[in-house]
Model the fold of this input.
Amino acid sequence: MSIQQHEQRVIDEKTQLKDKLDKLLEFLQKGQPAFIDDKNWALLSEQYDAMNWYYTILVSRIELFEVNQ
Done:
């Protein structure tokens, strides 16, 4: 199975995004620190949701690469 350059970029992007997602989730699970106000804390949670949705889309695209091979 040969991976095209653009497919490899999507795979790499998914890998990098997963790392960022894991780190953000770990941070969020520790609870709101005193130096982050309520509005920014809520935005961080929304950011996690958006990143997770984006990650799901990348996974779906990669699955299509495999079907089309």
Observations:
- The helical segments are 5-29, 38-67.
- DSSP finds two helices and no strands in the chain.
